[in-house]
Amino acid sequence: MKNAIRDLIDISQYAGARADYTQGGGGNTSVKDDGKGVMLIKASGYRLKDITENTAFVAVDKNRIADYYASVDLSVEKDYEKESADVSKSSVIELAGIATLRPSVEVGFHAILKKYVIHTHSVYANILTCSLEGESLAEKIFKDQDFGYVFLPYINPGFELTLAMKKAIDGYVKSRGKYPEVIFMKNHGLVVNSDDLERVKNVNEKVNESIRKYFGLADDFRAVKLAVSGDGFVSETPVVCNFVKTHGLTKAFLDEYPLYPDQLVYLNNILQFSPDKLKVENGKVYYHTDEKQATTLEETLAAYLFVITTVNSAKLNISKMSEKEVYFINHWEAEKYRRSVK
Ligand SMILES: [Zn+2]
């Protein structure tokens, strides 16, 4: 178990160190301890960089979750979302000295993947997943790479996403005779998985660098910048400042362009229920909240505006979530829990 924890910290620090890969509590990682059928996964609501030897992750019975998805009978009329969430919750294994937390809302698909899984909301991957041309561009960008990939359409997270991912992987293996290490999820993000610790990081790096270079983007968005202002903070991140100076930022704009779930969970949600915490004044974004929440909001906003700005300047067409998809996220029990953890 010690090795698995060490590896989980390794990939979590790697993916969690950069705001262009993960924002706030978004993204998650997992490591399977093969001999024991145990999977360690980031806990819901925590940040990747919070993960240490004894916090911000949980152990689950990986086989229990994977077996559920392998054998679920879809012919019966019932609430599969709830049933699968109950399976995830009851698969939690208590470890001595480690607080028992709730596993990431994305625990289902982690259980069906290879030993090491890095799931991020990479802004580079999301240029492809949030544009109508993204899937055909991926073909162009990755045709000579040594890894296979699948490009999933938008699917509600949770039960349905896990099943669809399993089906797409099985189909890819059958038709191409190799395993896809990379999964793009429309209007959501990127998953890289491998049985090799170095490989999972290398492939993740290659995917992001290839997209960044294809669009000729500077490598200058690894962290956001906030300055203290009164009893709060003001945004000094270039992508945010430049956008807001010219276009402003309103809830109507965010509602009109729903790109992916984390935008809704963090940004649209805060503007709707706590508008005092995020205010635009004189072309600047101010956060009247603690540093942790301000950072989460700023990272999420910067990533969102980075994707929108790049899609526009590359003359691609934005692909938005549908009303129905937005509704699902806003009413999903798991997301309500996630945003309640700070
Ligand atoms: Zn995600």
Describe the structure.
This protein folds into 2 domains: 2-214, 3-Layer(aba) Sandwich (L-fuculose-1-phosphate Aldolase), CATH 3.40.225; 226-340, no CATH class. 47% of the residues lie in helices and 16% in strands. The protein is built from 14 helices and 12 strands. The chain has helices at residues 2-16, 62-71, 80-90, 107-111, 123-129, 134-142, 159-176, 197-214, 238-247, 251-256, 261-273, 291-313, 323-330, 333-340, and strands at 28-33, 38-42, 57-61, 92-93, 116-120, 148-152, 180-185, 189-194, 226-229, 232-235, 278-281, 284-287. The strands form 2 sheets. The chain has an 8-stranded mixed sheet with strand order 4-3-2-1-5-8-7-6, with helices on both faces. Strand 7 (180-185) and strand 8 (189-194) form a beta hairpin. Helix 5 packs across helix 12 and helix 11 (261-273) crosses helix 12 (291-313). The longest helix has 23 residues, at 291-313. 44% of the residues are buried. The site of zinc ion has 5 residues, from loops.
